[in-house]
Amino acid sequence: MTKTDWSTWDDFQWRRRIETFGDDDRPVLASGPKGLVDTVCQLGELTDKGRETTLALGERLRHLYVDQLGFMPKIISDADMIYMRATPMARALDSVQQSFVGMYPVSARTASFPPPTIITRAPADETLFPNESNCRRFSQLSRAFAQRTADRCE
Fold first, then answer.
1. Going by C-beta distance under 8 Å and a sequence separation of 6 or more, which residues neighbour residue 73?
2. Which residues make Cβ contacts (< 8 Å) with residue 74, sequence separation at least 6?
3. Residue 113: how many other CB atoms lie within 10 Å
4. What's the rounded Cα separation, in Å, for the pair 55 and 98?
5. Percent of the chain that is helix, strand, coil (3-state, to 5)
6. CA-CA distance, 144 to 41, in Å (whole number)?
7. Beta strand pairing status for 118-119 and 84-85?
8. 69-78, 100-109, 118-127: which range is least confident on average?
9. How far is it, in rounded angstroms, from Cα 93 to Cα 119?
10. Residues 83 and 116 sit within 8 Å (Cβ to Cβ)
11. What does the alpha-carbon distance between residue 103 and residue 109 come to, in Å, rounded to a whole number?
């Protein structure tokens, strides 16, 4: 039995296509407005446009924090010097990944740069979005705020 070396990663390229049901309940590929099958995403997933804009966000962050202010290094070698956190939703993880790649493209990372860690929390512990389902008091305050807002708008 050979031991797998997990110290290196390759860039596995792949395409995903979504299957749905067509006439007579036969499987067919889902397609977008122009009949394209490679640009369709599931509900709640980051779109190609979303990937473009979050990549551009990372590039703008690099320009500000690396180039203009000098708060971050031009070349990154230590994955632990950056704290990245996302909600456990696929689009949030995609957004963090794209933003990181925009801020530190491959050319701005050392050859020995390890895969960075993205921290997530269980939905019950999540604090990056209002978590009414796991905090009774927050749920009460949220409902009271909504009611007060509704009363003002009448």
1. 66
2. 66, 108
3. 15
4. 5
5. 45, 10, 50
6. 36
7. parallel
8. 118-127
9. 9
10. no
11. 10
